[in-house]
Amino acid sequence: MARFFKKREENKGLAPGELVFIGDQKAENPQVRIIDYTNETLRDEVLSDIKESINFIHTDTVTWINIDGLHDTELIRTVGSLFKLHPLLLEDLMNTGQRPKTEEFDNCLFVTFKMIKFDTEKNLFISDQLSMIIGETYLLTFQEKPGQWFDPVRDRIKKKKGRIRVSGIDYLAYAIFDTIVDSYIYNIERMGEKIEDLDDEIGVDVDWAVLDKINTHKKEMNYLRKQIRPAREAIIKLAKTENYLIHENTRPFLKDLQDLITQATEAIDTYREMLSDQLNMYNSSVSNKMNEIMKVLTVFAAIFIPLTFIAGVYGTNFKFLPELEFRYSYYVFWFVLIVVALIMLYSFKRKKWL
Q: What is the CA radius of gyration of the chain?
């Protein structure tokens, strides 16, 4: 499964604006859920037909329409027709490998984000694409599959927490973005704890498992960087836009969100540098351990060189070797070997080679 890039064979050679789903189908059947509210009223229901939503968008209420499942081409085409959306917007909507971005159209703002969570079974990060269309009287969100990403926002709406029930569409969009950025920070902190713990493991022992952890963490941090860095650019563009759909009282919140996601990207860069340093430390530890091994082997080799010489001389087959007739020659021979070895060990110790 490709995580860094989606295959695009399906739309190769097609004209711009053609609707082709790119990605893996993650929902069996699309589901349309609408939340329509004011400060006093609230409706939360699942629609059997997307066309029913048209009755909500021409009122003074805040209308949030969430669609789970992007593989249904006819559904997306109907959404485009009902809300008069640009064909290129719809094309980007159905591409789940889309880079996070913000684009302005005549009647709406289009924003794509990646929602990230850690899969404990696969031990890696996975992402789902969120596409958002901010209109004057409605907010459209599209997810690849049903999930609990926005339950905190729905809970705030139902319980009238904060200012969400007295604010407009743009503030609702901000609340959703804020939830996503909070999940970014949570996941980065989670990875950061694992990365910082590696420092102690590297110092204790040289283990191949540590190298495997470093490489795994580097891959996951690169994945986070690929998903979050473009999201920062999208937030900056959204905070700076002068589009009439973003009201002045919402801009301070978007700027605060910009600061949060900037902190997230900086933390990613910091942890990536830490992983590079840890990899260098690991390689240095391996080299130092190898040097220690080579030093011991070299000492043994150096000791045995003169001993081998002595043994070679007295192991020759000359008939007239003066010491052959001496009764204690064998013991003298071993005494000389041991003395030479001890002298060499003492010399190595004085020179601090051992």
A: 35
User: Other CB atoms closer than 10 Å to residue 309's CB: what's the count?
Assistant: 11
Query: How far apart are the C-alpha atoms of 114 and 129, rounded to whole Å?
Result: 5
DSSP string, 222-234: HHHHHHHHHHHHH
Q: Is residue 100 predicted with pLDDT exceeding 80?
A: yes
Q: How many H helices and E strands in the chain?
A: 7, 7
Amino acid at 119: D
User: 138-143 and 62-68: which strand pairing?
Assistant: parallel
Confidence band for 271, pLDDT divided at 50, 70 and 90:
very high
- Find the mean pLDDT for residues 195-204: 79
How far apart CA 22 and CA 212 sit, in angstroms, is 32
> Is residue 257 within 8 Å of 180, Cβ to Cβ?
no
Query: Which single residue is written with the structure tokens 């939360």?
Result: 44
> Residues with Cβ < 8 Å from 162, sequence gap 6 or more?
156
Whether residue 91 sits in one domain with residue 192: yes
Please report where in the chains the tokens 């070797």 appear, as a residue: 321
Higher per-residue pLDDT: 210 or 181 = 181
The verdict on residue 222 lying in a domain is yes
**Mean pLDDT, residues 290-315 taken together:** 79
Pair 176, 32 in one domain: yes
Containing domain of residue 238, as a range? 9-285
Query: Is the same domain home to 238 and 341?
Result: no
294: in domain: yes
Q: What is the enclosing helix (H) or strand (E) of 270?
A: helix 251-314
CATH of the domain at 162: 3.30.460.20
Selection from 314, 316, 342 nearest residue 330 by Cα:
314
